[in-house]
Specification:
Blueprint: E1 6-14, H1 20-31, H2 35-41, E2 47-53, H3 55-68, E3 70-76
Antiparallel strand pairs: 1-2, 1-3
Helix pairs in contact: 1-2
């Protein structure tokens, strides 16, 4: 029995907080590819970056891509073939195959994030007991908070809207 082989798959996701423009530039440098090929990787369809890798090499690719700001998945290869790269211009135009087992949709409210993207959430304790809501149209300032603005007499008789001047 041969050793299990893996492939590195990119779906166009970037590390949270990273600029997609900067990630594209770093990937272009990493792969030595032009911007058109890199843009093709961000089409929203899964792109196999590298095939037929052992687990350690697949994890190295994943680490390098993550440092560049791209999120990739490692999956077991279904077929054994020689190393090839999605950047060589090969694209699979066939529709994706669904797995033989039944696919389930997560219920509403289920946590679908992988552990690396989860953040601990602890609600802030903020005292709002001193706040109130005023009725619609109510004067929000108290009398002692209002600033008295004196009336001023400004002569505007010399001003005109006529464009003839």
């Amino acid at each position: 029995m041969s050793e299990q082989r893996y492939e590195v798959v990119f779906r166009g996701d970037v590390v949270p907080g990273q600029s997609i423009i900067e990630v594209k530039q770093r990937l272009a440098e990493l792969f030595g590819a032009d911007s058109a090929r890199i843009d093709g990787m961000f089409s929203g369809r899964p792109v196999v970056i590298k095939r037929n890798l052992d687990e350690d090499m697949a994890k190295r690719y994943q680490s390098s891509m993550r440092k560049a700001g791209a999120v990739v998945d490692i999956r077991r290869s279904a077929e054994t073939e020689s190393d090839s790269s999605a950047l060589s211009g090969e694209t699979n135009q066939a529709s994706p195959q669904l797995p033989d087992e039944e696919v389930e949709v997560a219920p509403v409210g289920a946590d679908v994030l992988t552990p690396e993207y989860r953040r601990d959430f602890s609600p802030a304790e903020i005292d709002t007991s001193y706040m109130s809501i005023a009725e619609t149209g109510a004067d929000l300032l108290r009398d002692n908070e209002k600033q008295v603005v004196p009336d001023r007499k400004v002569d505007t008789s010399h001003l005109s809207l006529d464009d003839s001047e």
